[in-house]
Write a structure and sequence with these properties.
Four copies of one chain form a homotetramer. By secondary structure, chain A is α/β, with parallel strands linked by helices. Chain A has 14 helices and 18 strands. Chain A is globular.
């Protein structure tokens, strides 16, 4: 019998644990510790779930107090005091200041469940079935959401053909100078384009899994305009880019657009607890009671930490400004590397940043070296060739600097090895 | 502006809160309290999520300790000490004693995500797309699972046609004396039946949402035999009936069958925390790393309470015996009502019980009266005509009796009103 | 280079030519001749396309005259004199005498195109997508029709999952004494049956490819009643059983039902020329112009022969009576065989008859022996174990008798070989 | 009762007869006559089915002789002498001179059936489900083919969601200077493009229904190259553009490409008789016997006329040269109109030509005026704004000139009315 319980009992589907092969035990802020006594700076941040770091004291305090006092933990979609406070707080701290009128649907507490609900309500409200999704998009792996997800690795596991989605090129996909929303506009206006009039367009403002591709604010505005023109709903999937990751609470605020439907999850609870919501304009709320349900829609511990997170971080613009500042710092460090090694490319905005390397073998090797040196950073993109820098938004400056130093050191080392090899090849010393 | 934040901000999809219109605040054991100071006996139990009651002290203690100590909360599918202990405990307390060899996949922490993963892996392992599901089955509402769910209310909201599923009649659906597995056997063996050879059959041993329909142990054995004969996988969806609800840990133990794949969720964490797993025979574990993923696969708070729940309740057979005893008690009380009023029908096994009334208006009225008198009990079934008695397994005898008294009182009251009316009609006093 | 042009140039998909490996040249009535000078009695009749035999002189005359005179051959869906005469004749000889009010849609001239159109208009008229088809049904192999076809051989070649169809057991499929329309009734009336309310039920009154299974008149009436009750359309696919094959023009006349939609093809042109129509009740005719189109909707040569066929055979009941008489004769001969050899089973009605043998190897061997002796007869059914007796309706008595003699001789020979072998085994002389 | 049998009995789906409201009776060459004694020049030519004109004497003679002599008319997929001669003639006159090695599958005798078979065999041979089709493409209206067809009018009648097809922009769709095959290349090479690796690309070299859009020879070569690079099959749907319509027998000969699969129908029989074939490279012929079947695969009258058509027109290059010459003549006349009225656009190649007008109301009015003056010409394109000039290839020069004169006259009249109106508006005389 295999003495390792993970290998013995856990399905081969496990993934991150292969890249970061240790047993983690404790964590706080942007630091995470393992059973062997090692400590790591966390640039993974739960793939965008820990925007406020691990075990933030203010959130932890609220959670402990709530649990200790025998408050309601699980409530289906019953009314609870915890949900009430979350709704009121979200309204006063997020919606009202942005002059946004939306109703909220609590779905099963994962992003993919929120996407499924968003697609359903968009289809129900419009009476259409088609949905437009974009190249390199990621929206989850349950069947409805998976149809919108671009990755063949995930799509290939669907088991049945994911239906009801047409694929359009994301901003920049057809090269510079081509506005891909013009193509969408033409397709929608053409009665024999073969692209049926869709219920909705679903899009991420920054594609996380897709390799840290950012849509420009202008492109997002054009996209909104095309949607309005053809009376198609615009769904912003803000599961990874939302909750402050790009600076503002919603990632689309910079563009000044007003999506019809918004999905949020990941960092919404602020503490890593499962939670997901769909925001929709009131006129779209055509649900009948219970049409879309789920056992864990009422995860009150998440309501509690989410409320405290909003109170802690979103009553003023300090977090936003910090994200902006640190984001620029990360961007500059990555840009400097890209300038030094032209096969690299710096990507992203806010604290959602990436460095595209020449290939998966580069990114993988660099991430592994970083891990050995105390930094957790993952890779992403269609070819897994992009280092994904997604530290907690609350990371102290020194730890951020330390993490970036580790990245820089290992990137340089890897790229210079190439350089030397190329020089030797050029000098005839080495034959590849 | 609507002064009620729920009405103002929450989508019309909310459902339970319409039946039990109050704001709940605290709970412990089988008691739940609201903001107006009312206390209720809870025969809803989170629709089967709170088998060990609300805020069980042993689980609460483990949770508080874990959170207080800055342990890992969110971990994607990284290895953590909490997950390790859960795996070891599940192996030693659940799998080994039952001589079961399975690997475990942690999916997004909702039942529907587990069902999606189970369907995918079954399709991948067999290379087939078709799946057999049963009349009145419920397996979730994300698109892949929804295709298996029978309810038109949920199916109608799909937005696209749920594909890849054929429907077969559940045990008893074609009337007494007809073994519906023989029909399945014929279809699978017939080259022009029109039912393509399926990857899997997915079935609940007791259909909860479907109206508390129990499959007999013999039918389950026949089903397993038909599956083996045609090399089709057998998936038991034990999300609602598992974790002790019918007495044994798994609901299919009574039948002595060995499913290829098992889904668990709801009461698995024991504390109402989101958690879901897929168990599969090792030979089926054909997943490639990360093929099915999700942000909240590593919800360590749930691992902690789940581990403690196993340690508290599954080291001996006391809980099982108690469920058996209380289940019989509930069964007898419901049977007595059914004997007294022949239009009623008692259903279910263990502590998964139901009382079918003559129609939705009966069940709804009785449930509402119960609520007024301090008992929370929901309705279910295709016509919403079944009272669903799903108390915590740990309910004290006196509270169980009290709850049953309330049900009895209101059932009798409603049925006798009919009786009097019928008598008056018969006597010519009243003309309907 | 292969000297056989068929093997050299024709796809491996060719099929009948493998069973009857010769090159056919000329034919008339129920006789067909090959290039080697052999003559065969034709009990295949173009799989039901040549109800009036090969090259019927009256039809041939009309055809020659029409072509010689430079009349319109191809007309899309333009009005032509030939189409006009066909419409008038069909109205006066088929519809009016039966008091039927239907409009006619000329589709692409194959049965499967007609089925596709029928499904579309049923879905359009009802706004629903689901369709009910039956075990062992055959409705064509283009994707929409294929979803209704039961055979795995054909379904497996679909390439994509055929969607939108639920499968129900045909008359007799669940054994004697079980009326499968009661199951359908229950499913349609059950809100969580998992079978969505369908647009239509599509059914053959006698399943040709499915093995010559006849639905009883009573079952058809029950089916119609269930359809009416749930406001579901009833489509009779009369492509093989129609045009007199069972005695009456439509095969459902015996049952006295009135389908909402009827598909006809095969023997409609009477001369083997491609032609297909959909008949629908006027209220269902919700087509917009050109929504369903096709190049060969206006095959005027077929209109000409179809008109002449109606005039020749359907002005009185002589053909019907002859079919009845000959059908009984065939039935009796097959029944006698089944009585003599209890593993045989006689099936069918009218001149749509079959003899089920113990297995494909029997049916194949018998058909091959018949071919050697001058009779063309094919096999059908899910296991290809049914001899399918489908002679021209106009076959002279002596040729019919001759054909039946050949069948009888070869059936007896094959079955007696079994008998002798069994006897030897029983006597210990032979060990299998 | 409506005295018009067409209105009384024919479904509202009828279409061409609304544009050309008369009853046609006889025809020969490029002339067609109606019951009122009118004669028309035929620029519709059965939507490309009558490339050799109506009732060509050589073909008619072969047909009459064949029918008169009691040869086989209907043969399923049995071998017949007529089929044998067709195969040999197609091989010697079409395949061999072009050095093409293909096997032939006779499908149900309509274009859409051939497309269904082509899609199936491509999916079967590759084991993939996705297919790439293009904007404005038309491939038929049975469900499998319909998924490839672009027109919303047709797609909207599908009844279920047509699945398994991704849509790419046709040559020129993204504007001049953008090679849309580069986009396809990028999508296929990108693991998270969301466009699953397809079985095949299906394309028309000139889109007939789509508005007479011609792909350039270079674009077709690039498309072939992208297909080869990613091991994707290339299907040329040559149903409308083939059989000499663009000059060469196949429309893709100009581009020098070698498709993996080719569909032919429409003018293949040469006489307007239903016929369709799929040509595929021998290595792709993975069909099992009978997997794709159909009653009218063996329409021997069509084999006879098709053979005679090949013998009459394809033994030398006279027809090709004539098409080239007449095509240029048509092209020049249309170009001259487009030069005179800049809102017009001349399109197409060979004798597949179109004139795009400013809108449907123009094209419809012009076509109606032409009809009144003795010319049948239809409209096409997503907006029905393109006059489609598709005369028989064999049209005498004088009739071609006459037809073009009628078009010119009516186009000029319509456009000048605009001009005068614009002038009056400009002069302030008229207020629109």
């Amino acid at each position: 019998m295999n003495s390792n319980v993970f290998e013995r009992l856990e399905s081969s589907v496990r993934s991150y644990c292969r890249t970061f092969p240790t047993v983690f035990t404790r964590a706080s802020g942007s630091r995470i510790h393992d059973a062997r006594g090692n400590s790591y700076i966390d640039f993974l941040a739960g793939a965008g779930t820990l925007n406020y770091g691990h075990n933030h004291p203010a959130l932890k305090e609220a959670l402990l107090e709530y649990v200790a006092d025998d408050n309601i933990v699980h409530s289906l979609d019953l009314h609870t005091a915890a949900k009430q406070r979350f709704l009121e707080t979200f309204e006063s701290l997020v919606l009202k200041p942005r002059n946004m009128r939306y109703v909220m649907q609590f779905t099963g507490p994962t992003g993919t469940n929120a996407v499924e609900a968003a697609l359903k309500v968009a289809r129900k409200a419009t009476g259409r079935t088609n949905v437009i999704a974009f190249t390199n998009g990621f929206h989850g792996v349950t069947l409805g959401a998976l149809a919108c997800t671009g990755n063949r690795h995930h799509r290939g596991a669907a088991g049945v053909d994911p239906a009801g989605v047409n694929r359009l090129p994301y901003d920049g996909y057809l090269g510079d100078g081509i506005d891909t929303t013009a193509y969408l506009d033409k397709l929608l206006g053409d009665n024999s384009s073969g692209v049926d009039l869709p219920a909705a367009v679903i899009v991420e403002t920054v594609q996380g899994e897709g390799g840290i591709n950012s849509a420009s604010a202008q492109w997002l505005r054009h996209l909104e305009r095309v949607c309005r023109k053809h009376r198609v709903l615009l769904i912003i999937d803000d599961i990874q880019a939302g909750c402050g990751r790009t600076g503002s609470f919603f990632s689309f605020e910079e563009a000044g657009i007003r999506p019809d439907i918004i999905t949020l999850s990941k960092s919404l609870s602020g503490f890593g607890l499962p939670m997901a919501v769909v925001l929709m304009k009131p006129a779209l709320d055509c649900w009948e009671p219970g049409e879309h349900n789920g056992t864990f829609r009422g995860h009150n511990l998440a309501f509690i930490t989410a409320t405290r997170a909003l109170e802690t971080f979103w009553t003023d613009d300090r977090l936003s400004l910090a994200v902006q500042r640190k984001g620029e710092q990360v961007g500059e460090r990555l840009a400097a590397l890209a300038q030094r090694f032209p096969t690299l490319e710096a990507r992203g905005r806010g604290l959602m940043r990436g460095l595209r390397t020449p290939g998966e073998e580069y990114a993988t090797e660099i991430a592994a070296a970083c891990f050995d040196q105390g930094l957790i950073v993952e890779t992403c993109g269609p070819r897994d060739d992009v280092l994904k820098v997604l530290c907690p938004l609350t990371i102290p400056d020194d730890e951020l600097g330390l993490g970036l130093d580790i990245i820089e050191r290992n990137v340089v080392r890897r790229m210079e090895r190439d350089g030397k090899r190329n020089a030797r090849v050029a000098a005839g010393v080495f034959r590849p």
